[in-house]
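Supplementary notes for students who missed Thursday's class. We covered one full example, reproduced here. Read the sequence, then the structure, then the short commentary at the end.
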Amino acid sequence: MLKDETTELEQMRKMLQNSSQWVGSTREEREVVHHKQCPEYWIEKVPCQIQTGYEYYLFNQTDSWPDWYDINLYHDQTKLTSIGGINLNGGRCFSSTPETRFFSVENSGFPLMYKCFIQGSVRFALHEFFYSGMEWDEQYAHDCFEECVLFFRNKEEQCDFEKYVQLNWSRRDELAGKVWVPYFETVPDYDAANLSEEYENVQVLKILQQEFRATATGKYRNLLP
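Structure (token representation):
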């Protein structure tokens, strides 16, 4: 991305923090919103033609059917970035998709995977932008989704947390005993047991994140969920 595009994207991220300043329209399956004062900044939300599969965080929703979107951010006719989007619980709530993160832990033949949002990122700004909190069913789907992803203040906290996990992952099975795992229905071409394990791993990580923040000498206390 060129320097001027990076600057425009950061400006757009700041604008997204006030959703009341955006207006738009929907035509068939394409939704477009633009900024009231600076209409050269606009967002296009269209169904994704590539991604069709399942993620573990869909299975604690009442309706786990995947419904993926592309969220395209523009300045004039220049596309600044494209980020995935997901309809949650049958379209009752919409969010940008979380970042996928992999890192190594001891005594595991595979990297540990989790999904996250980092405060200050465009991805996180879009997650908040699309949430109104006006309807109970939207709140429920939103809260269920946030139960399945991790939130970080910045990359520094994320890296420090991963170091903490590497030192404590030997307690994984013990902590998993405290975790509730929803029913993972069988879907074609997907291993329900693997999806269930991904869900359980993230719940263990959330427990470890609470410990990490409580023992980090106040540095990361009282932050995001």
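Commentary. The first strand starts at residue 22 and ends at 27. DSSP finds six helices and nine strands in the chain. If anything here is unclear, bring it to office hours.
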